[in-house]
Amino acid sequence: MRLYLKYFAIHLKSQLQYRTSFILTTLGQFLISFSAFLTIYFMFSRFHTVEGFSYSEVLLCFAIVLTAFAVAECFARGFDTFAAMIGNGEFDRIMVRPKNEIFQVLASKIEFSRAGRFVQALIIFIYAISASGIYWSMDKFLTLLLMMISGVVIFSGLFIIYAGLCFFTTEGLEFINIFTDGGREFGMYPLSIYGKEVLRFYTYVIPLALFQYYPFLYLTGRVQSFLYMLAPLPGILFIVPCLVFWKIGVRRYKSIGS
Amino acid sequence: MKKYKSFLRIRFINGLQYRAAAYAGVATQFAWGFMELLMFRAFYKADPSAFPMEFSQLSSYIWLQQAFLALFMTWFFENDIFEAIARGNVAYELVRPMNLYNMWFVKNVASRLSRAALRCMPILLVAFHLPRPYNISLPDSPASFLAFLVSMALGTFVVVAFCMLVYITTFYTLSPLGVKIISISLVDFLSGSLIPLPFLPDGIRSVVELLPFASIQNVPLRIYSGNIAGYEAALSIVLQIFWLLFLIALGRLTLARALKKVVVQGG
Fold first, then answer.
1. What chain A residue is nearest to B173 in terms of C-alpha separation?
2. Hey, where are the domains in chain B?
3. How far is CA B99 from CA B1, B2, B95, B194, in A?
4. Which of A169, B97, B104, B189 is the most exposed place for a label (fewest CB within 10 A)?
5. Rounded distance, CA A41 to CA A19, Å?
6. What is d(CA A210, CA A191) in angstroms, rounded to the nearest whole number?
7. Any chain B CB within 8 A of the CB of A258?
8. Is A84 within 8 Å of chain B by CB?
9. Best CA proximity match to B83, nearest among B166, B163, B167
10. Sequence-ordered list of residues with C-beta below 8 angstroms from that of A227, at least 6 positions apart, any chain
11. Is the separation of the CB atoms in B69 and B30 below 8 Å?
12. pTM of the prediction?
């Protein structure tokens, strides 16, 4: 942990060296999520409701997904750019160091410009929380916290799978983007609006719905059962197969030379 | 002219090499288009009367957008151009007996074409055979199909001409990251790649439709399904030509100025 904090400080310092670029990138991140917000705004000014969800409820859902994604992307960014790390032999250097590889990849990159997204998510959050009319009792607050944690873990797991695939293909595979970027883009809306099959897919295969949809029903008072509130917990377990997959990948890793 | 043609051919063949990546890309785009359609379906169910275009037109729009993604998306930058500028390799390019602007322009068009050529067929084929109204319908009329082709070429040129401006700013900023990401996010929204422009409120829409970004994918995709037709279509194509000439002129001008005081980095 102390070592991670040290990495943290180094990354922060080095990224602040290129101040203009850093500010512009942060601003860009903000704008990207801002245009996502605009689409929701414009769609709702036309349609008012979707599958029974109101504007402020969708915003709340959007904010939760965006926050989880921003945090995961900020810290697990090393996995996102992992293809390059295999390509330039950096991973060989990691293998010979006496520290856990996952830790090292995790620490190899921390993307602070994702703060742009995070700030955006926070603003929408504050708005949505006050506009949604939810009475924030202790259990609702706990639900929200669980959703966040589970979301960060699930998105990180997806990044790890993405990186793990590189062991087999040496190049990143684009289709996992459907779950990472796609999870962010389509997770703006509660996943049930896409129909039963999609919801089932996102429950049992890629468990995004476990943190985004089921607890959300509890949060907005649609269901009373505590089971829904606890749905993010099995979602967290998603990290286990991801790590196993990664381990398998590392075991069969052959350096590509150079 | 001949040298640009062979340049185009080399880039095109080069682009065709990455077939495995292309197939993975096709799967991605297919799933993406599918999710998008489902999302719009949910809104359609909420209030069909508020839908600004016919659902079948929207389906055509989305599938064509996915099929020709490589032609229209802002984010297909040529990273080696950025690198050439930032690292100073642009010096080599300058000693070649070719116009730098034309060369880069051709390069961009060629790699977009090769990407699109690899990816569009499977998506189009499958999307044609989907059940109504989720499929691509046939073009509205032969005339609109012809207009679609013309307008698609123009749209591709417009987006490349815009990308050229982003490359050129790198002469001043050296790091392309910030400018790149800001321009991508702006154009994505204003060109109708996030949601088709008819979904915007009328006041905003009429302004956005005049901007150069609307001349990228908005025009060809809507001409295809007959959402823009007749006189209006002709007008939109004229607007596309105007923006194309404007962006090219602006690009040439700024490039000339940037080259006049270019400092080549490193040795």
1. A21
2. 2-260
3. 11, 13, 10, 35
4. B97
5. 32
6. 10
7. no
8. no
9. B167
10. none
11. no
12. 0.86
In chain A, domain spans: 2-251
Interface of B with A in 6-25 (CB under 8 A): 20-21, 24-25
Structure token pair of residue B256: 């000339």
Helix (H) or strand (E) holding A253: none
Exposed e or buried b for every residue in A130-149, given b needs 16+ CB within 10 A? Answer: eebebeeeeebeebbebbbb
Contact yes or no for A24 and B181 at CB 8 A: yes
- Pick from A35, A45, A193: CB nearest B39: A193
Rounded to the nearest angstrom, the minimum Cα separation between A145 and chain B is 27
State pLDDT tens for residues B117-139. 888 888 999 998 988 888 888 88
Interface contact A15, partner B, CB < 8 A: no
CB contacts, 8 Å: A168 with chain B: none
Q: Do A174 and B32 touch (CB under 8 A)?
A: no
DSSP, collapsed to helix, strand or coil, labels residue A50 as strand
Q: What is the pLDDT confidence band of residue B267, given thresholds at 50, 70 and 90?
A: very low
pLDDT tens digits, one per residue of A53-98: 888 889 999 999 988 998 888 888 778 777 777 777 778 787 778 7
Taking only the tens place, the pLDDT of each residue in B198-254 is 999 888 999 999 999 999 999 999 999 888 888 889 999 999 999 999 999 999 999
